[in-house]
Design brief:
Blueprint: E1 2-8, H1 13-22, E2 26-37, E3 40-48, H2 50-62, H3 65-68, E4 70-75, H4 82-90, H5 101-111, H6 116-135, H7 138-147, H8 151-163, H9 166-196, H10 202-206, H11 220-238, H12 245-249, H13 254-266, H14 270-310
Antiparallel strand pairs: 1-3, 1-4, 2-3
Amino acid sequence: MLHLRLIVPHDLRDAVLERIDTCPGVTHVVLLPDSALRPAGDVVLCDVARESADEVLGGLRALGLAERGAIDVSPLELAISKAAEQAEELAPGDGADALVWEAVSEITHEESTLSVVYLAFMALATMLAACGAVLDSAILVVGAMAVGPDFGPLAGLCVAVVRRRAREAARSLAALLVGFAVAMVLTAGFSWVMDQLGLFSQAAFDAERPNTSFIWKPDAMSFVVALLAGAAGMLSLTSAKAGMLVGVAISVTTVPAAANAAVAFGYRDYAQAVGSGVQLLLNLLGIVLAGVLTLLAQHWAWRVIRARAAG
């Protein structure tokens, strides 16, 4: 279940309480009159089953509560209450299948912010992947995949496309492109320094690297893996299992491909640079395509579930 704390202007109180009362899956409603100071108003607390959350939040937004008051949502880890059990039984569908657009939009908004920390993680992940590529270390490559934060903007782009929000799509795309551009430039400089120190060498980079050659040798499986990873990542996000995103990122080859391309350009190995670029593009396209299709499928399935429950 989810816990809602609402700051409600006095003239909206009756409408808000009526909207909450008419939605199945809502319980533990508490009214604290004149408790809010900034913005001024009443405080309404309630718990809502996850499968009813999208309906409740959409109704509150339609009343203008987000603009004139506040809607705070937090996960409710444990509710020992018969009323909570009954609320979940009344709510249509299953909580694990519920698609809460407000939560998904908020998570992707935070994860796709073009911040200093985001750029730092992108650069560090790409440098780590460069070490793995030159040393032919699959462990380092996998570690770089886990560190890379690029799934956040990719997920944000998928949500924006499905919701038809051009500004959010441009924002996510900018974070993705700037992040990879900055990371690759810094990695090229990093590889030059490593070469000057004798830790990298073109001989090692040009040698047979059986453990990491997949990075610059894309094939049909590259696209298939990207599709599967994109679908798994989106499912983990929409089912409120955001902690799984790091694990999902291990399945794709975006960061290693960008790193190998940066090192290849430094050594003027344009064949590897092109191959790595193609690998990067295949993975990006596969993840976005799978993410969009997964969201559309979830949206359609959830509408069918709710329609059958209402019937």
